[in-house]
Amino acid sequence: MIQKHWNLRYIKNRIQNFYFEKKHKDYPWINKQAIIVFENLLLKDDIGVEFGSGSSTIWFSKKVKHLTSIEDHKEWFDKINKQLKEESIDNTTYLFKKSENSISQYSEYCSYVDTFKDESLDFIVIDGKHRVTIANKAVSKIKKGGFIYLDDSQRYIPKKTDSPHSVYNKLDKITPEWMFFIKEIKSWRKIWTTDGVNDATFFIKK
Q1: Which residue of 3, 148, 154, 200 has the fewest CB atoms within a 10 Å radius of its CB?
Q2: The model's pTM
Q3: What band does 2 get if pLDDT is binned at 50, 70 and 90?
Q4: How many CB atoms lie under 10 A from the CB of residue 32?
Q5: How far is C-alpha 19 from the chain's CA centre?
Q6: How far apart are CA 25 and CA 48, in angstroms?
Q7: Does residue 3 form part of some domain?
Q8: 113, pLDDT greater than 50
Q9: How many domains does the chain have?
Q10: What is the pLDDT of residues 41-72, one digit of tens each?
């Protein structure tokens, strides 16, 4: 059965994404608008954390002072770790942390954010498991002027969009934990990006 979002506009967006990613293999696997925002926000002196690694890890590492990247998939961790060594990246702390714990906030993966001091980070990228747990823990860790980046944000934060799986006008789909996060960052500046396939939002702390 073909899902409702498979219309001509969505197919066109998917094709555009395919060719963009093929042409820019070293870029993060995020929408093009988000890449542009990152290029404008990231500074050479920035210190940040990434939950969920990938092609973005090396890309971020080349743009900031220091990056800590957390991964919970061992085979993927080994692959990215090899790439970091091949690229001689020396400003990145890359860590494997388990996330199997049924209470996600206490897993090695989620609790690692607690090791950072409050208002000590310029950015936190959330693109892995247990996103709402990380998002709520991240709020206090960001400096003023810093930001939280949430990938696939249409799945968690209500905003009108053409991307599928949106919770816009579906308040029953928003969990209490996400409602708490939305309340916490209510006064923050927000930059919403989309390519009609996936959305991503930058929450900038005032």
Answers
A1: 3
A2: 0.91
A3: very low
A4: 16
A5: 22
A6: 23
A7: no
A8: yes
A9: 1
A10: 999 999 999 999 999 999 999 999 999 999 99
Distance CA 21, CA 18 (A): 5
**Closest among 32, 88, 31, 78 to 58, alpha carbons compared:** 88
Q: Which domain holds residue 165?
A: 8-204
Query: What are the C-alpha distances in Å from 10 to residues 2, 151, 161, 166?
Result: 13, 18, 12, 14
Cβ atoms 189, 28 nearer than 8 A:
no
Query: For the domain that residue 147 is a member of, what is the CATH number?
Result: 3.40.50.150
Ordered DSSP codes for the chain: ---TT-SHHHHHHHHHHHHHHHH-TTS-SS-HHHHHHHHHH--TT-EEEEES-SHHHHHHHTTSSEEEEEE--HHHHHHHHHHHHHTT--SEEEEE-----SSGGGSHHHHGGGGSPTT-EEEEEE-SSSHHHHHHHHGGGEEEEEEEEEETGGGTS----SSSS--TT-GGGS-HHHHHHHHHTTTSEEEEEE-SS-EEEEEE--
Distance (Å, whole) CA 79 – CA 100:
20
Give the count of beta carbons closer than 10 Å to the beta carbon of residue 92.
22
- Rounded distance between C-alpha atoms, residue 55 and residue 70, angstroms: 13
The region that residue 145 occupies, defined by phi over 0 for left and psi between -120 and 50 for alpha, beta otherwise, is left
Q: Quick check: is 1 in a domain? A: no
